[in-house]
Amino acid sequence: MHRRHAIIALCTLLAAPLSAAAQTPIAGLKPADPQPTADKLAAGLAVNYHFDFTTNISKLNENGKTVGAPITHLEWDMGSGKVLTSDKDDGVQAHIFGFIRFPAPGTYVFEVNSNDGVRLEIGGKKIWEDGDVHADRLSPAIPVAVPSAGLYPIKILYFERKNTATLEVFWALPGGKRSSIPADAIVHLKR
């Protein structure tokens, strides 16, 4: 009987997701080179929209021609209202881009909550993808090794098919707890 319990416990342990501390951090992020100067930057992330229904992030049109107002924060729980800074509430595809400012090197932990599909890239590395149609779904904790302080390119591809919409990206500073990414940590080149 004890052997059976030990096997069940071992299988349960192996099937459980690893805590962020136990996972190997995503490495190899590249900072912006050269680092943009403050006079070239504007607050928030830039966004281009394309309005059409899709069912997977791999089918998202990254070449949307509709320039939206900047994304000034990364906590969007929109319910059934307008999606991000667009004037639409359904069939929205967003190509969000700019830079994220890391105040120090170290291992940051990210979490992404989305409804519907999303892909997050930082410093040229894919951090998370949950690319299909779904209700609100939170990623596991994702450790990311940041080699130096400074600005890193960030790209978020996101789509909302219909009904409700959510796009939230959180971080934990090295050794810290999950928190909102501050508004002054996201910027884009003036356009």
Protein architecture, described:
This protein has 191 residues and is mainly β. It has one domain (23-189): Jelly Rolls (Sandwich), CATH 2.60.120. The chain has one helix and 14 strands; from the N terminus they run H-E-E-E-E-E-E-E-E-E-E-E-E-E-E. Strands 1, 2, 3, 5, 7, 8, 11 and 14 form an eight-stranded antiparallel sheet that branches. Strands 4, 6, 9, 10, 12 and 13 form a six-stranded antiparallel sheet that branches. A hairpin with a 2-residue loop joins strand 7 and strand 8 (125-130). The radius of gyration is 18 Å and the shape is globular. The model is unreliable at 4-18 (pLDDT under 50).
Summarize this entry quickly.
With 191 residues, this protein is mostly beta strands. The chain has one helix at 2-15; strands spanning 41-43, 46-51, 66-67, 75-79, 92-102, 106-115, 118-122, 125-130, 137-138, 142-146, 150-160, 165-172, 179-180, 186-189. It has one domain (23-189): Jelly Rolls (Sandwich).
CATH topology: Jelly Rolls
Strand content: 35-45%
Mean pLDDT: 91
CATH class: Mainly Beta
Question: Could you state the order of secondary-structure elements as H and E?
Answer: HEEEEEEEEEEEEEE
**What is the 3D form?**
globular
Report how far apart the termini are.
68 Å
Count of discrete structural domains? 1
Supply database-style keywords.
191 residues; Jelly Rolls; eight-stranded antiparallel β-sheet; 1 helix
Chain-wise SSE layout:
Layout: H1 2-15, E1 41-43, E2 46-51, E3 66-67, E4 75-79, E5 92-102, E6 106-115, E7 118-122, E8 125-130, E9 137-138, E10 142-146, E11 150-160, E12 165-172, E13 179-180, E14 186-189
Antiparallel strand pairs: 1-14, 2-3, 2-5, 4-12, 5-11, 5-14, 6-9, 6-10, 6-12, 7-8, 7-11, 12-13
